[in-house]
Amino acid sequence: MAFFNPALRTAFAPVLALTLLGTAAPPAYAINLVIDSSLSSVTYTPGGFSFCDPSGNCDPPSQPQTFAMSGSFALVQETVFVPTSFFPLDGYDREQIRFESVAVDSGGAAALGFSFPNYFAVLTGELFAANEDPCTWFPSTGSCFSMGSFGNYSGSFDGTTLSMSGIDYAGDFFPSSFSFTLVARGEDPASVPEPGTLACLMAGALGLGLARRRNRSRA
């Protein structure tokens, strides 16, 4: 004997679909941004020391170089749960942004080692800040130890326009640095749900559709 009879299953299907949607992970939204090349650039500052001969004549330090930046990327805004202990319910929700589908042209800066940031930023209102150091954004357990130079960036995003500046590093022993600024604007102000969100919506719609179909067949 089935646990639910057909009438109960028909009545329960919409409730189950809505429950699944309510307990699903918070939606993430993506918007495609195009870089304004007239307001965006990367400046390369070489690292290391100047070498001198025995007479005290030193090589002149390498001068910074600036390159224009253009292209596009997708900004994904999402809510993630951050655990603060080993207990699954201990933690908090954090608003984040991250960049995907990066197609950025930074000219000679890329050849020198510049990399557009692919790590997330914490979003507070319209302001965001990011740090490549993994010890920065996660609760410390006493075992996290940072070494080397880590990139960072910060700025603002009002839903259609992103402005940010940051630092990236190349090299290990004497890392060269890249400072960058950019302004990017959305091609379409309307945010588009991520594939995972669309899947949840489709599952809910399917459940509601099956319930209506069963009701019609019984009529």
Principal-axes shape call: flat
- Spatial separation of the terminal alpha carbons: 24 Å
The CATH level-2 architecture of the largest domain is identified as: Beta Barrel
Largest sheet: 8 strands, antiparallel, barrel
CATH top level of the largest domain is Mainly Beta
Question: From N to C, what is the helix and strand string?
Answer: HEEEEEHEEEEEEH
Q: Work out the helix count.
A: 3
Strand order of the largest sheet: 1-4-5-6-7-8-9-10
Task: Provide structural commentary.
This protein folds into 2 domains: 1-27 and 195-219; 29-50 and 60-139 and 148-193, Porin. The protein is an alpha+beta fold. β4 and β5 (91-105) form a beta hairpin. The chain has helices at 6-23, 108-111, 195-218; strands at residues 29-35, 41-45, 65-68, 70-83, 91-105, 121-124, 127-131, 152-157, 161-170, 176-186, 192-193. Residues 1-24 have low confidence and may be disordered. The two termini are 24 Å apart. It is flat. α1 (6-23) packs antiparallel against α3 (195-218).
Question: SSE layout and pairings?
Answer:
Blueprint: H1 6-23, E1 29-35, E2 41-45, E3 65-68, E4 70-83, E5 91-105, H2 108-111, E6 121-124, E7 127-131, E8 152-157, E9 161-170, E10 176-186, E11 192-193, H3 195-218
Antiparallel strand pairs: 1-4, 1-10, 1-11, 2-3, 2-10, 4-5, 5-6, 6-7, 7-8, 8-9, 9-10
Characteristic key phrases:
single chain, 219 residues, alpha+beta, Porin, 2 domains, eight-stranded antiparallel β-barrel, 3 helices, flat, disordered N terminus
Give a concise summary.
The chain is built from three helices and eleven strands, in the order αβββββαββββββα.
